[in-house]
Amino acid sequence: MRFRDFTVQLCDGHRVGIAVVGRDDAFPIISCHGSGSSRLDVGLLVTQAEQAGVRLIALDRPGAVAPTHNLAIACSPGLMMSL
After folding, report:
1. 61 near 11, Cβ under 8 Å?
2. Of 2, 10, 18, 50, which has the most beta carbons under 10 Å away?
3. What is the superkingdom listed in this entry's lineage (predicted)?
């Protein structure tokens, strides 16, 4: 079981908080948390992710914990691909 939590800085200087659970070689799924929570919620799903053979990747939304980006950037496919 793995839980990793880190922040990356994008080339434009914005920061994005990311939490990942599951094996590195598992099928990746982007987890989009709701209002009032953060990327850290995936930490509750470590066992389930391992059992299902998936890797959950959660990014903080604007205004939650670590990010300095805006909503348009957070929802862009380009951001997801670069991560």
Report:
1. no
2. 18
3. Bacteria
Q: What is the pLDDT of residue 32?
A: 82
Alpha-carbon span 33 to 49, nearest angstrom: 16
- Find the angle CA(57)-CA(34)-CA(77) to the nearest 5 degrees: 50
Compute φ and ψ for 60, nearest 5 degrees.
-70, 140
Q: What is the 3-state secondary structure (H, E, C) of the chain?
A: CCEEEEEEECCCCCEEEEEEECCCCCEEEEECCCCCCCHHHHHHHHHHHHHHCEEEEEECCCCCCCCCCCHHHHCCHHHHHHC
And the tokens for 20?
Answer: 């990942």
State both tokens at 17: 């908080």
d(CA 69, CA 16): 7
- Rounded mean pLDDT of the chain? 78
Q: Which domain CATH number covers 41?
A: 3.40.50.1820
